[in-house]
Fold this protein.
Amino acid sequence: MNMEESVLNRRSVRSFLPKPVSRDVITGIMEKARWAPSWGNTQPWEIVVADGAKARELAVAFENEGKKGTPPRPDIPVPTDFPEIFRNRYIGLGRDLLTYMGIERDDKEARKQHYLNMYRFFGAPAVIYLLIDQEMNIPYSCLDIGSIGTTICYLALKEGLGTIYLAASMHFPDIVRRVLSIPESKKLVIGIAIGYPHPTDKASLFRSHRAPVDEFLRFAE
Ligand SMILES: Cc1cc2nc3c(=O)[nH]c(=O)nc-3n(C[C@H](O)[C@H](O)[C@H](O)COP(=O)(O)O)c2cc1C
């Protein structure tokens, strides 16, 4: 798969096979991903992978919080109030995804199961947590986390793997810290679930929309 094919074929995978991802494969991805650009070459990322029993322990703990309806308490706040154009896209994504999966708008139980499934990381056998030291300027270092994170997603494709950035995977950072032995001084920016995509499940195959280029690009005159 060449560069262009990778960019056009990557999608967020929301249903994974239980097949484990070998640590050698993940390490191989990181060997290449570390060449991602960062501000001043600071490479501020720290990466902790939850796989095997640790991934399962996290999934159980997150699902329990979901069942209790515990409000998320991420290290880095998730936007709640934002301009209409972006809100419409956000709402549109949820609507399109659930429709594609055959979940009716008023089917509260099916929707709840979808969100609990998200807290089980959609069955992914591993979650890659991207952390930064709290003494780094957090908004700024998030640029660098995005840089390496997306590089990881593209490299994973070449190994036949699927990924999804999951804000939900850092909703309860204290649990992640306890299970993965991460000190308080490290802030959780985002987790990326990784695994082998389910070949037929609709949650694995869904494609999101994009705005046309003329909606976001202009050449300054
Ligand atoms: C920072 C970030 C956090 C995300 N968190 C979630 C999440 O918690 N749950 C989810 O289903 N998708 C999540 N996504 C995936 C986005 O919904 C997805 O990237 C977007 O809809 C575009 O679709 P695509 O990745 O399939 O192209 C997240 C993506 C990013 C970049």
Notes: Residues 3 and 172 are 35 Å apart (CA to CA). The chain has one domain: 3-205. The helical segments are 3-9, 23-33, 52-68, 84-100, 108-119, 138-158, 173-180, 202-205. The longest strand covers residues 186-195.
